[in-house]
Amino acid sequence: MVYLNGTETNYNHAFIHYLTVPPTSTNFTGLVQGMNYYASVIAHSGNNSQESDIVSVRTYPAPVHEFQCFQNSSENIYCNWSLPIGVITDLFLRVFEGSSPLQNISISNENLYFIIRYPWGDQFSGLQSSTTTNTTFTTIERLKPNTIYTVIIVAIAGSLQSQTIESTAKTFVTAPPAILEPVKIDSVPNAVTPSSLTLTFNCSWFATTNGDLKYYTVIVKESAETTTEKPENKWPLSKYSDYKSGTTAVYQVDDRVYPAECKSPSSILPVTVGTGATNGGFDDGALKSNTKYRFSFRAYTYIPGTRSVRAGKQALFAETFFSLPISTLVASPDSGVLAGTAIGAMLGGVVLTAAGFFLYKKLK
Question: Which domains does the chain have, with CATH numbers?
């Protein structure tokens, strides 16, 4: 027995009471972000000591630095970043098209192993031996042209994640989707002349999924054939001056700005060929009278300028199949010829009448 404040007290009880003092805490500073630490508490009493259980605690990892994504092609974007100071075990990227998740990319910082998962169930994995994926950059593939993508990245240490960093990039435009079936190109009634034709242009023929449509042109072919074919897949085609000189039967007219009316895909517009206009080095010269022509419409998402052509860039376009033959009108004789012909015919009639009269009198 011991006496505390003059009162007889059980020793063991007093010792327990002494150990149940209010708990204390401490903060550790200057630790490495993302590092896994071990801690324990050692209690001393005289020559005796007792150590608590060892606990494992990890600090939160720091986010990556200088995270940026860029256009790379019409089907992929390129992202790079700098690794954070501290310890990370993995990097995790999520790719969104609008609000829809598209890809999840996990990159191991320890063994250079990556996994790409898609919402529809596809999964790809492997070692980062190629240049498409690394711990400081990645090329995100299997994307759509002319589409904005958002990419977020987090650094992971154990089960802890860093602050989220975000970047956006847009894939390049590409040629409009190819038109796989012939479309019906007609001439507008009462708008056909000996030197021009007005055609129907349907905005639904060309889709904007690969980029906004900037320009269009009409390709003309002097032909009475009815075969199913498209114009030669090159840009530019021959000019009206080449057709006029007889060196080609196919030419393209002046480049025109894509119609604003086509904001409504169901719009049908009149387009006149043979106007005599000149634009961008191309002519829309007069057509021949009483001649059959076939027409194709070509729409562009991109037409290179002079410097771009020198750099090897190509026009991006799609076109319709050639139409069935459409004929211009027969040219009318000019008024002078018509009058002379009429007078000559009338005089000839008078002479014949007089001759017939004298012959009749003679026979009588």
Answer: 2-58 (no CATH), 65-170 (2.60.40.10), 187-327 (no CATH)
